[in-house]
Structures are given as C-alpha cells and as structure tokens.
Amino acid sequence: MSDGTDTVYLSGFAHAAGERVPLAELDDATVADHAERLREQGLRHVRVSASPVPELATASARATLAAAGDASVDSAVLCTDTPAAVSPTMDLWDFLAGTGRSDLPGAIVGGSGCGNLGPGLAAARDAVRAGTASSVLLVTADRVSTGTRYLPSGTTVLSDGAASCLVSREPVGDGPAVRLRSLSLGVRLDTESSARELAVARATTRAVGGIVRRALEPLGLERRDVGKILMGNYGDASRSFLALAAGVDPRRAHCPTQADLGHCFSADILVNLAELARRGEAVPGEPVLLLASSPRSWAAALVEYVR
Fold it and tell me: Is pLDDT larger for residue 194 or for residue 263?
C-alpha cells in the first residue's frame, strides 16, 4: 500500500561502457563518411564492447547495489532496445543472476528506442508510489549488434554501455541524488510518415512542447524556470533543436559526456546527471528538465538535485 506520499528519488548512479575508441579508428565505413560532420557536432569517441546486454547491465547494476549498501531493493526494471540473443526473458534472467540477486523480480521495458529511460522510469516510479516496492533497480543497457553506429536522426554515433540508479522513497548512499517531481510521456507514431523534413520538425516540436508543458504546469513552473536541460548525447544541432522545441534556451542544454561517451542509447541522461554532480555543476533545488527521446516517442521529467 502507498504511504500517502508521491515523493520519489533517484540515487546510486553508476554506468559501465565499452572501450573508448576515437572515431577515426572505428571500423565503420558509414561513420567514416560522416566523420567531419560528427566532429563539427561535438563527437570525438565511441564506446565499443563485445559484452552482451546482460553483462553490461550487470556491471552497472552491481555498482548501484554497492552504493545502496543495506537499503532494500525489491524489484528491477531493465530498459533495452537491443535484440536478444535468445529471448528477452533470458536476457533479463541472465542480468538478474549476474547481480547476485537471483530472487529479485524484474521486467524488461522497450519500445521507445533511445527514449526507453522514460517508460522505464515510469514503471519504477509507479511501483514505488503504489507501495509494491520500496526501491527499484533501474538499468538501461544496449549495444550495437549489427550495422553501422552512425545515427542520422541525431547526427551522432551509437555506443555500447549501460547506466543504472535506484528509484526509491529516500536517497541511498552518499553520492548525488535527485528528486523526481514530474514525468510526462508522449508518442506520435506517424511522425516519420511524411517525406518533408519541415513537417517532421513541426510534428516533433508540437509533441515535445506538449509533454514539457504537462511536466511543468502541475508544478506551477514555466519554461523560463528550467535551470538546465539534459538530453541524449546527440549532435549539437539536434540538441539545440530539441531544447527549442521544449521552449528552453539551448544555452541551458548540458551534455558533459558527449565527446567521451558518444550516444549510449537511453543511458546518456543518467550518466550526465551523475557527471554534472561530479563536476560540481549540480545546484540543489534548481529545476532540471530531462528530455528522453526517439524519433517517435518522448519523455519529459522534472528533477532537482538534493545533494
């Protein structure tokens, strides 16, 4: 049963990424063809791993569980868009077994591509709010299994890796922590149905503007109140476009791991939340907008650092 409060925190941030490879040394003809454009957009490296998704997820989750210490962890949510070697169920079971918590119930969330953090966070938050779990291990893990790492929709390059945190009633450990104040999800499955780029841009702007409005209005906040906006590690132009679509000054868009990490699917935002704190750029109480996105789905979350 719920204890009557909707307050939920994210803490215990961790991540595990593949080997750091300069773009110029990557064996990918399509990336090589777009190398100059990628460099112009702020990309310098990509992370490459031969480890399957369950191993990447386990590596990150173990660090989060270590940060949790004696805190109770009641369930797990694994976000991934990577095709399973055998089945999604086997990937989930292998991941959970690898954490050493073989009795931990879990679920897989997908279907939103690089925006999987949004529905994954919603599932974890709802479990905590409903009282079915006091703390949920949230992990997002992906790797490129076939094809090019070049992602034209964000002018970026895909990396292999995972990120994790605990979603709980109270922050755990001694590291950075944020309070989740609101979360809004949106989807527009016909966004790419038009061949006209301008029409797609307009549809994206309307969709992003809508979910941001739904995230801010219940809190009595306006777009000008947002101190920072964090997105995936897309190219500079793509992030500026998304910031404008959200109604936030692009100068407030922060992407501290873009050059080093590349675009690690839906893990970037969790990694960047922790990195801002590590750099001393986290301001307690400042409204921070998280915008997780794919070409056809979006999620906006409003958080604030509590430490």
Answer: 263
Q: What is the pTM of this model?
A: 0.94
The pLDDT of residue 68 is 87
Q: Where are the beta strands (DSSP E) in 101-247?
A: 106-109, 135-142, 150-151, 156-157, 161-168, 177-187, 228-230
Q: What is the pLDDT of residue 6?
A: 81
The CA radius of gyration of the chain, in Å to the nearest whole number, is: 18
Per CATH, domain 177-305 is 3.40.47.10:
yes
Select from 257, 263, 43, 27 the least CA-distant residue to 35.
43
Question: 8-168: what fold?
Answer: Peroxisomal Thiolase; Chain A, domain 1 (3.40.47)
The predicted structure's pLDDT at residue 203: 84
Kindly report, as residue ranges, where domains of CATH 3.40.47.10 are found in the chain. 8-168, 177-305
The arithmetic mean of pLDDT across residues 214-219, rounded, is 96
Buried b (16+ CB within 10 A) or exposed e, 245-274: bbbbeeebbbbbbbebbbbbbbbbbbbbbb
Average pLDDT of the residues in 140-169: 97
Among candidate residues 137, 186, 136, the one with its CA nearest the CA of residue 292: 186
